[in-house]
Design goal:
Length: 631
């Protein structure tokens, strides 16, 4: 059934070819060894067995929880530059042959590989996906009773708005009676404002143990800040006898990381909370839900007590999680074209808000639980960053080009066709970072220095190479040294920003936390690394005690999720390799643009920018089907 270079493929020939592909960088050592081990374990080293194992493992390293056999290129299933390998069968025959492999079983069998419909999974991942789907479906269908005065409270929470349809109000009305609510929207669309009002409405009807989390420490700190700001605004804006100032004040504002909530035990990589020791809470709010991967969502749902409400907040258009799955995007998949409320739900919304919506679904899937906020209150409708983000998100290249042509002051383009572009980016970074370094020289407060540093960031599409994090960090370090702003002759020097790369629970430092090495007051020779924590306090850590870390003048777009900067400069490589190019898609560009509050600069080529906006990252996953099409 498998042919290699025009001849029937033997096991030995395929093993030799896998080795060759590994040496050529077409295949990782992990994928090859996984296949060889599985073959040995099942005493089956047939070419089909080896190939399926290699492909499923490679899918996982590319963040796809499964392999969709119907989408496999039979003429070049490995997708190598030269199509040496071919599957000589049509899709139904392939499906039958895969189902017959000893290592492959159906979901209720105890086999390492599971074939479910057209999808081949590692058993673990099929388990994650089916459990997540089952729990979300069950929660989605669970109605909860609402406060007798919900309509009046909604009226008080949303004094007549300017918008024809107030989607924030509809979101709160929708969520009021549901165990599961998903609120998505781009930056500044009012997700936090909406959820604060929702929490207020719910806590007015019963006393709830509310917990708030985000996937990273940085995102948790931002959530905390946003909720605080939102509470403050409500205190000033709301003026109704139905809502007391005390009720607003008593809303929680502390947020933690998901790992911390679940009680991650670093020693044994287990979590303290699970089905047999569930979390003690009545309502869980998860912000930046697009960053939550499939295994984590499974753990979270497993630890959630049966009665608890779950609210997921996020931006479905952002980059998906660093690990397998695209849970939020899959949850939102069925409502990409707009809301999908059933007749029951539109009637309920009308009863609570007076807004009449046309029902759009007979079998709504998760439609009745989804709320999408579209109007950005942060970016003026006609401002450049918002326009560019929207055009990129729509994948509309004419619109993207038109936005650039309008020459908005907020948007700058540095042509990346020659080395002048890179030099211009480094120059921009040098002048932006000189602000915090000057403040350090003037012995400003550490908090002020950190705030100034956080005004600007270079974001890179990738980690390696001249245009990646490593190269740009080196170039900026050299430029700042030449300008006399830093003295990087030693590893630890005053002014060096660092990003933490692993969690250290004893120090309270988490993967992605960013700090700066600063001289200790009164002793210029001693350095401490300063971090701003979620409560606004500054944490000081001896440089020698830092867990794994790297310099952070530039960081990847992936790592920037959950953060915002006044000004962002994005670096795209001028000549990406095909595999690099496949990683630079619409979500990456959109995420980078939406990290910027008032200025976005892009170093790149128009061809790459355009190609990237055309490419939507699809993750092979059965979750959307399970949530939207299955019973
Ligand atoms: N309905 C509204 N009318 C006017 N301003 C609003 C409205 N909703 C939110 N805002 C303002 O828009 C800004 C962003 O709101 P909010 O923080 O709730 O959005 P968000 O979607 O959570 O943003 P982020 O993407 O930063 O998390 C805030 O300054 C808020 O006051």
């Amino acid at each position: 059934m498998i042919e290699l270079s025009g001849k029937p493929c033997s096991s030995d020939a395929l093993k030799a070819q896998l080795k060759l592909w590994q040496s050529q960088g077409e295949l990782s050592a992990l994928d090859r060894h996984f296949a060889l081990q599985m073959a040995e374990l099942h005493s089956d080293d047939s070419p089909l067995m080896l190939l399926m194992c290699v492909l499923v493992s490679r899918q996982l390293s590319r963040q796809h929880p499964c392999l969709d056999l119907s989408a496999l290129m039979l003429g070049n299933p490995m997708g190598t530059r030269q199509a040496q390998l071919r599957i000589l069968a049509d899709y139904p025959a392939l499906l039958g042959a895969v189902a017959n492999l000893d290592a492959v079983g159906s979901p209720d069998e105890n086999k390492p590989l599971i074939l479910e419909g057209k999808r081949l999974y590692l058993k673990r991942y099929q388990g994650f996906e089916s459990r997540v789907a089952a729990r979300l479906n069950a929660m989605a269908g669970t109605e909860l009773s609402t406060h007798a005065h919900t309509a009046a409270l909604l009226e008080a929470l949303f004094p007549v708005g300017k918008e024809a349809i107030d989607w924030q109000k509809i979101a709160v009305a929708t969520a009021a009676g549901k165990q599961l609510t998903v609120i998505t929207g781009g930056p500044g669309t009012g997700k936090t404002t909406t959820v604060t009002k929702l929490l207020l409405l719910l806590s007015l009807s019963s006393s709830l143990n509310i917990r708030m989390v985000a996937p990273t420490g940085k995102a948790a700190a931002r959530l905390s800040e946003s909720i605080k700001a939102s509470k403050q605004r409500l205190t000033q804006e709301l003026n109704s006898p139905l809502i007391s100032q005390d009720a607003i004040a008593s809303l929680p504002e502390d947020a933690s990381t998901l790992h911390r909530l679940l009680g991650f035990q670093p020693g044994n990589h287990k979590f303290r909370h699970h089905r047999d020791n569930p979390l003690d809470l009545d309502l869980l709010l998860v912000d930046e839900a697009s960053m939550v991967d499939l295994p984590m969502m499974d753990r979270l749902l497993d630890a959630l007590p049966g009665h608890a409400r779950l609210i997921l907040l996020g931006d479905q258009d952002q980059l998906a999680s660093v690990e397998a799955g695209a849970v939020l995007a899959d949850i939102c998949e069925g409502a990409r074209q707009g809301y999908r409320y059933s007749a029951v739900q539109t009637a309920r919304i009308e009863g609570l808000t007076g807004t009449k919506l046309a029902p759009r679904a007979d079998a709504p899937g998760l439609g009745d639980n989804l709320c999408r906020l579209l109007h950005s209150h942060r970016f003026a409708e006609d401002a450049g960053i918002g326009q560019l983000a929207m055009a990129v998100n729509e994948g509309d290249k004419e619109k993207v080009a038109a936005v650039w042509q309008k020459n908005y002051a907020e948007l700058s383009w540095i042509p990346g066709d020659n080395s002048d572009g890179l030099a211009a980016l480094v120059q921009l970074a040098k002048s932006a970072y000189s602000e915090y370094l000057q403040a350090m020289k003037q012995q400003a407060e550490p908090k002020t220095i950190l705030q100034k540093y956080n005004e600007f960031r270079v974001l890179c599409a990738m980690k390696n190479g001249e245009y990646g994090v490593d190269g740009i960090n080196r170039a900026i370090t050299a430029a700042l040294a030449r300008a006399g702003l830093i003295e990087p002759s030693q590893e630890f020097y005053a002014g060096r920003p660092v990003m933490i790369q692993s969690n250290d629970y004893s120090l309270g430092l988490f993967n992605g936390d960013i700090g700066i090495l600063l001289p200790v007051e009164g002793d210029n020779q001693r350095l401490m690394t300063h971090f701003i924590q979620s409560d606004g306090q500054v944490l000081k850590v001896l440089p020698a005690r830092l867990p794994g870390h790297e310099t952070c003048y530039a960081m990847t777009v992936h790592k920037s999720q959950g953060s915002e900067f006044a000004s962002v400069a994005l670096s795209l490589p001028p000549q990406p390799t095909p595999s690099q190019q496949s990683l630079i898609g619409r979500e990456l560009i959109y995420t980078a643009i939406t990290r910027a509050k008032s200025k976005f600069t892009c170093l790149g080529t128009e061809a790459l920018f355009e190609a990237a906006t055309q490419r939507r990252t699809e993750r092979a996953s059965g979750l959307a089907d399970r949530l939207w099409h299955e019973d």
